[in-house]
Amino acid sequence: MIKAYFGVDIGSISTKGVIVNENNEIIANEYLWTEGDPIGAVKRVLEGLQKQIEGKNVQVVAVGTTGSARKLIGVVLNAQIVKNEITAHAIGTMSRVPDVRTILEIGGQDSKIILLNSGIVTDYAMNTICAAGTGSFLMSQAKRLGLAIEELGELALKAQSPTRIAARCTVFAESDLVHKAQIGHKKEDIVAGICTAVVNNYLNNVGKGKRIQAPIVFQGGVSKNVGVVKAFEKILGHDVYVDEYGHLMGCLGAAILAKNSGKEQVFDFAIQDVAFITKGRECEKCSNNCEIIYVYRNDEVLDVWGNRCERGLAEA
């Protein structure tokens, strides 16, 4: 029997899952869109992972969750470990690049930078409400240009004279893009300009004031865009490493943390057939007016959170 560990990263745009063995090697992985339904997305991830390990004598004995819906999914999966994205991404990345000093991460709506020294996180930052340096911005611009998101990177590499696109804000960038297209800039030059704009926005916001040192690892869904990778290398003046599993570093870290927790319990994949629902209500028992979230398995309350005093714990 191969002892294995399941990690899941539930983001606003995508949900990622991996199963690793005791050597932290990925033996199954799944990546799909969250579509506003984190519980449903995790069930689909489980279905995909189960098919990949079928007949391979693999037994999952610990679960870790990370990402924006980590607490909710941690309850649903009865996870041994629920960790923030900074820790999970750092652990996952170091398992692949032990001497990493800077982690650049750009996802669908979130982006972050993590600085490390001798395997210890020394500083980090996450993006604010601006989306101009994220994957959702790239997706919207690809649609505006009539391109598939997968086409952007290779097209950017064909640019002879990248267009300068305003990068300080999504709205300005979009209006500038339209203007440049209308006055005759080539599509590949515009796409290269968009990639550069994403990098400049990221460095001027998330990376502002940070000392970026090599080795540099770029990860998250946007790391698959070679145009953005090349823009980072040109602006930073360093090679930027993109791992083949760069989009899975968060869930890889969660799986490793679950393994290292020492808490083992055989995981039942049949959980994907169980009905889980969440209900929210505003508690009116004091002036806090807390938003209380209830998580149910069938009719059983699994967990409650959001209350700032004991009066908010009463069932809905």
Helical residue percent band: 25-40%
Compressed to H and E, one letter per element, the order equals EEEHEHEHEEEHHHHEHEHEEE
**Taking all residues together, what is the mean pLDDT?**
85
Instruction: Please describe the biggest sheet, giving its number of strands, its sense, and whether it closes into a barrel.
Output: 5 strands, mixed
**Strands across the major sheet, in which order?**
3-2-1-4-5
Number of helices: 9
Computed CA radius of gyration, to the nearest angstrom: 21 Å
User: Are there runs of 5+ residues with pLDDT below 50, and where?
Assistant: none
Report the end-to-end length measured between terminal Cα atoms. Answer: 44 Å
Choose one word for the global shape.
globular
Which structural class do you get from the secondary structure elements? alpha/beta
Fraction in beta strands: 25-35%
Quantity of strands, as a count: 13
Q: What can you see in these coordinates?
A:
The protein has 316 residues and is an alpha/beta fold. It is built from nine helices and 13 strands. It has helices at residues 38-53, 70-77, 85-96, 135-144, 152-156, 170-182, 187-205, 226-236, 249-260, and strands spanning 2-10, 14-20, 26-33, 58-67, 81-82, 102-106, 111-117, 120-126, 216-219, 240-241, 276-282, 291-297, 300-305. A five-stranded mixed beta sheet has the order 3-2-1-4-5. Strands 8-7-6-9-10 form a five-stranded mixed beta sheet. A hairpin with a 3-residue loop joins strand 1 (2-10) and strand 2. Helix 6 (170-182) runs antiparallel to helix 7 (187-205) and helix 7 crosses helix 8. The longest helix has 19 residues, at 187-205. The protein starts with a strand and ends in an 11-residue tail after the last strand. 45% of the residues are buried. The mean pLDDT is 85.
